[in-house]
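hiii so um. not sure if this is the right channel but i have a protein structure encoded as tokens and i wanna go backwards to a sequence. like what aa goes where. can anyone help
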């Protein structure tokens, strides 16, 4: 598993739970990345055993795919709450009067509150293009995200896929010298950094204060499996104690390493798919699609409850 701290007994129990609940690898060549779940109906209240199976699947695979889950907003929120506490959707630039969903749902769409397509030059749409960059949800918050759960309500005819990168495998593939170099580094994360990559700088003073940089570890150890992973994102714009040009050059190299094709799975959405991922061990990005077509996705997000600084890599 690439980590001498992994508990073999834990993994035996994990595999027994996963196998008994029909969670299987999508790609047999990568049996520990991306699981496909069958036989669980997320529209109803799950049993304790089913909740345990979902958590075990997440520990094993990092990303789980559920097909044909015809969830409404309330059902998605209820299922998500069974897994842990939710964070509020405070990472966008929607004003209260413009918001079409509750604060428990992130509006990952190109629609306004009336269900109409946002104009191509709309500030909200341009800010949302940051989702096309590799990132980890809410790494710009002091307490970042744990799981994200994205429900596909309406998808475009082509494009709009979501790609996931396995940050555990990316860490394992580093040479020993680089592992030693990154082990104790602390990065600063902000949405000001990520949107700046795209040339978006249309922020109010209040938004700049809201998204002041926060500190996150560059290497994290998973609290259950013990595996180490890189913790990267387009939101990462500096490394403590490093000159800025050197830090950004190094982070660019790490991102290029971590998103090589052997570490990446591209999910081709079907209507009513629900895909959930562990932000502690993955990065993801959306892919382009025709802006004249509707892409209506709704995301619930579980809080990690503690900062990455409290989950030591040692």
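sure thing!! here u go:
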């Amino acid at each position: 598993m690439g980590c001498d701290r992994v508990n073999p007994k834990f993994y035996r129990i994990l595999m027994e739970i996963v196998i008994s609940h029909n969670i299987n690898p999508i790609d047999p060549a990568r049996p520990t990345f991306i699981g496909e779940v069958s036989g669980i109906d997320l529209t109803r209240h799950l049993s304790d055993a089913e909740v345990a199976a979902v958590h075990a699947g997440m520990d094993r695979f990092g990303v789980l795919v559920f097909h044909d889950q015809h969830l409404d907003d309330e059902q998605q929120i209820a299922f998500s709450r069974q897994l842990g506490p939710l964070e509020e959707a405070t990472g966008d630039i929607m004003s209260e009067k413009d918001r079409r969903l509750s604060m428990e749902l992130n509006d990952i769409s190109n629609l306004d509150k009336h269900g109409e397509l946002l104009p191509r030059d709309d500030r909200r749409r341009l800010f949302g293009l940051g989702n096309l960059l590799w990132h980890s949800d809410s790494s710009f918050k002091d307490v970042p995200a744990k799981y994200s759960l994205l429900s596909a309500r309406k998808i475009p005819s082509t494009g709009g896929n979501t790609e996931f990168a396995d940050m555990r495998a990316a860490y394992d593939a580093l040479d020993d010298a680089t592992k030693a170099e990154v082990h104790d580094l602390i990065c600063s994360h902000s949405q000001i950094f990520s949107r700046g990559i795209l040339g978006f700088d249309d922020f109010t003073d209040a938004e700049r204060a809201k998204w002041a940089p926060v500190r996150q570890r560059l290497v994290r150890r998973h609290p259950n499996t013990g595996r180490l992973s890189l913790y990267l994102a387009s939101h990462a714009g500096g490394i403590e104690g490093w000159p800025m040009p050197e830090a950004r050059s190094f982070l660019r190299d790490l991102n290029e390493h971590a998103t090589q094709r052997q570490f990446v799975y591209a999910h081709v959405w079907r209507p009513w798919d629900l895909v959930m991922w562990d932000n502690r061990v993955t990065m993801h990005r959306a892919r382009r699609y025709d802006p004249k077509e509707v892409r209506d996705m709704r995301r619930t997000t579980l809080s990690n409850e503690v900062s990455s600084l409290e989950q030591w890599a040692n």
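oh and The chain has one domain: 8-310.
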